[in-house]
Amino acid sequence: MSDLEKDPAEVVSTGDGEGPVVELLEGREVVLGRSTKVRRLLPNKNRRMVGAWCFVDHYGPDDITTRRVDSYGVPGERGMLVPPHPHTSLQTVSWLFEGEIEHRDSVGSHAYVRPGELNIMTAGNGIAHSEVSTPTAPPTLHGAQLWVALPDSVRSTTPAAFNAYADLPELELDGARVTVMVGTVAGVTSPAPAYTPLVGADVTVEPGRTLTLPLTPSNEYAVLIVDGSLTVGDLTPGFGEMVYVGAGRESVDVVASDNGVRFLLLGGEPFEEQLVMWWNFIGRSHEEIVAARDAWQAAIGAGGNDRFPMVPGYDGDPLPAPALPAIALKPRPRAR
């Protein structure tokens, strides 16, 4: 998924970890094109990363059976329409609760993202991809799009094909059902690749039950509520809200509401490398971001280039990059 903001803010992490906390991370609404509204939880005004997770968009559930009408009265597209756009130095992680999305990328992958299947694309030095709702997609679209920052040792590798993991491990735990997307939960490990210690899980807790969720003390964690609500510490986050619970815990207790709760558990060791995030690029300096933007703009004009080939099979124009800010992109702390 692309960051389609016309004036994207620079986001840089310096990687300082924290101990146990309970902190609400308020999302903000971002419009992707004319068709999809998302709640952006990371980067957040107070915290820019959780482990190597550096970008979290939660969208839906949306009825995509009719075309949206924007604030100008212009009909938009049916469902999601994100034209080809670039990425560098990250992995995209796609997870659907309902619906279907068609994916195409510049290394030739053509796949469908479906509920319960983890889909990972590794950008390396540079990749472009598109995401659209097909005419035959189910009527409801609900999911999360996440980015994982790649460490310096692998961030400039050749981009990897889009990989789907349909047979993910599951476990039952204190009245909860857990699907382990990435990393390890309660000794159960996902086959999906990770380049830093990372955890991602889809957790459903029965109504009124208390789940003692086992954690790794060296990791920091957050929970994103995607259905229902829960209580953790003194907070009762509901749909579309995220709570950061920090590091240094062996476990954390979460209490499901009377209607139950479903949430994503995201975590990992605090990412210690300094990052510069701007638009769809991750780098380590202002100069890297400028070079990536210039390469993408050149690719659009030339119909592709060595760093950013065009996306085969996509019928439409790619997204141009927004203008860079007038000042150099500078580091900022990981958390304010």
Automatic annotation (TrEMBL):
Domain Pirin N-terminal per the UniProt entry, residue ranges: 37-148
Keywords on record: Iron, Metal-binding
Domain (Pirin C-terminal): residue spans on this chain: 201-298
Family statement drawn from the similarity comment of this UniProt entry: Belongs to the pirin family.
Cofactor mode of binding and number, as noted: Binds 1 Fe cation per subunit.
A single MF term (Gene Ontology): metal ion binding
Cofactors required: Fe cation
Entry-linked PANTHER family: PIRIN, PIRIN-RELATED
Taxonomic source organism: Kribbella pittospori
Binding annotation for Fe cation: 85, 87, 129, 131
Alphabetized CDD domains for the sequence: cupin_pirin_C (cd02247), cupin_pirin_N (cd02909)
InterPro entries: Pirin, Pirin_C_dom, Pirin_N_dom, RmlC-like_jellyroll, RmlC_Cupin_sf
Protein name: Pirin family protein
